[in-house]
Amino acid sequence: MATGIRAQFLLHRLRLGRSDLVQQARSPFGVVKVSATYAVVVWLLFIYDMRLIRAGVSESTNDAERNLYARARGDQLLNIWLLVPLLFVFNLGCAVVIWRWPDLFLTRGGHVWLISAQLISFIVYLVYIASYFKTIASLVLRSHEQD
Q: Alpha-carbon distance 118 to 146, whole Å?
């Protein structure tokens, strides 16, 4: 029961983080600060989800389910050890450069380069997610067929 409550709290915090981000839209420095905080919450959620994956592995009854959980575990670890830390470091770096050179990034429009980099990284991540779901779709079908 407590596990479900903690997950609900994290999901609620993620929703609040998004609203904080919208409220900061007029301030590039505020946006990257909220984005870095948001990345930390997402990071914690990925770490927490590993418990659910471990439980699924122990309850799996066939090879298709084990393969599905192995793929999910690999994706979680990629997010925990590489993708979300990169997101955090990127946003923290953006905050530092905006703070260090406010004239360049706030007055002369340099923040557009940071926004462009964020957009490109978001598109790359969406392509990765689409590829991941394409891969696991067949694993999900096989696991349901073997039930």
A: 42
Tokens representing 125 are 């991540």
What is the torsional sign of CA 104, 109, 111, 117? negative
How much of the chain, in percent, has pLDDT values that exceed 70? 82
109 or 101, which is more confident:
101
The domain segmentation of the chain, as residue ranges, is 2-145
Question: Which DSSP letter does residue 104 get?
Answer: I
Sign of CA dihedral 126, 132, 136, 137: positive
What amino acid occupies position 83? L
Within 10 angstroms of residue 4's Cβ, the number of other Cβ atoms is 8
pTM, full prediction: 0.74
Quote the radius of gyration of the chain (alpha carbons, Å): 19
Structure tokens at 92: 């923290």
Alpha carbon 6 to chain centroid distance? 18
How far apart, in whole angstroms, are the C-alpha atoms of residue 90 and residue 77? 19
